[in-house]
Amino acid sequence: MTDTLLDVSGVTMRFGGLTAVNDVSLTVGQGEIIGLIGPNGAGKTTFFNCLTGLYVPTEGTVTFRGSVLPPKPHLVTQAGIARTFQNIRLFANMTVLENVLVGRHTRTREGLLSAILRGPGYRRAEAESREKAMELLEFTGLAAKADHLSRNLPYGEQRKLEIARAMASDPGLLLLDEPTAGMNPQETRAAEELVFAIRDKGVAVLVIEHDMRFIFNLCTRTAVLVQGQKIVEGDRETVQNDERVITAYLGAPLAETGPDQATGAAPVTGTDPTEADQ
Ligand SMILES: Nc1ncnc2c1ncn2[C@@H]1O[C@H](COP(=O)(O)OP(=O)(O)O)[C@@H](O)[C@H]1O
Ligand SMILES: [Mg+2]
């Protein structure tokens, strides 16, 4: 049994009359790769936003390394959780290297005064930051493009750069929101290797993804959200054979699922309630 790193307990997020996340609990252990799947609009991104302080959950607590996290993004980052976004958020007119340096910012000790005076302490810290940032670019395969503007990178590389930037804050847990969206199959396989390599560095990963092959190749455990509720959690067999999951993804009950409906979540509609990126 692994040590618990993240312990989410009964998180609910309501927007007016809409309950986007409904009493969801989840743990992530040290060094684990955990999947989070569900139809569009299921509440996956909202759940991430509740973990990272972008939203203050209506109910529930998020405990990381034994302490309850305050719902403030910079404090969450400082505590050791980093994330990427479903819709890429890079500084388009900064170079690749500069984008990673921004991610490093929370871990540098040198304060504003020292930056203004540009004393030896500042220069040392800056050199160290650049070295770390370059290491991360090597790690993600972007070193040759360190001086390129991030907006000029192809889509797949922008996603990798987001990961490099998130890793720059030295997280203990990395949250990835649809990291392979827009990638071709080859890039997706490479992204799989990257996630394994991140895990091998001792960083736990919680990943939202629609690509089932990606999810089941990587994750020891996967939780399924449907209409804000966690309907099942387990290994590949458990998830794939769960009739509520099949129903949720097909959008209609299967022919033989009649009696089991009593145990399941309400069937979701076939069309996605929202395509809106968060
Ligand atoms: N800030 C917000 N205000 C109102 N509704 C929101 C907000 N953020 C998300 N939602 C709603 O919450 C539900 C879940 O959305 P989301 O978490 O983006 O789903 P997923 O990431 O699983 O596709 C959707 O119905 C969405 O419209
Ligand atoms: Mg989402």
From TrEMBL:
It comes from the Bacteria. GO terms for molecular function: ATP binding. SMART domains: AAA. The keyword Transmembrane helix does not apply. PROSITE patterns: ABC_TRANSPORTER_2 (PS50893). PANTHER family: AMINO ACID ABC TRANSPORTER ATP-BINDING PROTEIN, CONSERVED COMPONENT OF ABC TRANSPORTER FOR NATURAL AMINO ACIDS-RELATED. This is ABC transporter ATP-binding protein. The lineage of its organism: Bacteria, Bacillati, Actinomycetota, Actinomycetes, Kitasatosporales.
